[in-house]
Amino acid sequence: MLTIERKVRELAVEQAGQLPAEVHGSSEPLLLRGLVRHWPIVRAAEESPSAVEAYLRRYYQDASVNAVFGEPGHQGRLFYNEDLSGMNFKAVPARLDQVLDEIRGQSHEDDPAGVYMGSTSVDDVLPGFRSENDIDLEGVDPLVFIWMGNRSRIAAHYDLPDNIACCAAGRRRFTLFPPGEIANLYPGPIDFTPAGQTISMVDFEEPDFERFPRFRKALEQAQLAELEPGDAVYIPSMWWHHVEGQRELNVLVNYWWRPVPAWMDTPANVLEYALLAMRDLPKKEREAWRAIFDFYVFDFEEESVSHIPENRRGVLAPMDDMLARRLRAQLLRKLNR
């Protein structure tokens, strides 16, 4: 296991379930020790894994979940197979109670097969759960998901939304990196991924520094957060995070939200089109487009277009729902050529 010296900054949580004001707008990860210590599922976790099982089964309805079943010998790492022709696990629809049965069945194995359920809507699969286990995000309407499994290692990846990940049972270890470390994390394919997000190809348990020498640079910027039941970590948008479940039964509930207008599109679509339209241009043209993107997007300020009459700014005017619809229709006409 990697030794990470730098710890994620810890904030005091004065009242369980209430976020410290500093969380909103923070550009750095934050460890929120005891944020969900009042949750009944956390109290069950303090008792035993079987108590957690029993608590979850109380709320489960007959709904299908996306489950992942690995094989022994991978130390819980859910990843590609050796030649990247597929994955080292099988993803199948299952029942949540079947997943719990499989986790319990593997709990006494020295080399357990991986069992994992990720990114599952709490309200769909455990209706009523949030009436007792929830946090106040002050007017934010988040997506709330549950993640569950035995010992697991999820490769470093980034997510677009801001994220609060709450350890409800077991133990979680998060290793986090700023967005600028992407080159040093050796990202894999964009359009062929284990779970939808591009992942780091580095094995954090046994990093191959000959194959991935720049990973040493990434480790200089790494931050560590270790969560016990009741703790949470705030992960800002686009921060890379490697996640380990370290007990026989680990349950995490996370909250995702984006503090942007609903009409905004996902930037990942822009990246894919840029690969098509820009990446293979001659370098001097790419540099020219870099300057144009800086001017119109990355360094944009109101004064950038103050020399243009307001009634002639078109798509350079402040974006709203109506202008977004117009621009989207314009793009679709161009793409459907």
SSE order, one letter for each helix or strand: EEHHEEEHEHEEEEHEEEEHHH
**Amino-to-carboxy terminus distance:** 52 Å
Largest sheet: 9 strands, mixed
Structural class by sheet pairing and helices:
alpha+beta
What do you see in this structure?
The protein is α+β, with helices and mostly antiparallel strands and 337 residues long. 24% of the residues lie in helices and 23% in strands. It contains 8 helices and 14 strands. The strands form 2 sheets. The chain has a 9-stranded mixed beta sheet. A 5-stranded mixed beta sheet has the order 4-8-13-10-11, with no helix packed on it. Helix 1 runs antiparallel to helix 2. The longest helix has 16 residues.
SSE layout:
Blueprint: E1 10-11, E2 30-32, H1 40-47, H2 49-59, E3 64-70, E4 77-78, E5 89-95, H3 96-106, E6 115-121, H4 122-125, E7 143-149, E8 152-157, E9 162-169, E10 172-177, H5 215-220, E11 223-227, E12 232-235, E13 240-245, E14 250-257, H6 267-277, H7 283-298, H8 321-335
Parallel strand pairs: 1-2, 4-8
Antiparallel strand pairs: 2-12, 3-5, 3-6, 6-7, 7-14, 8-13, 9-12, 9-14, 10-11, 10-13
Helix pairs in contact: 1-2
What does this entry show, briefly?
The chain is α+β, with helices and mostly antiparallel strands and 337 residues long. The chain is built from eight helices and 14 strands.
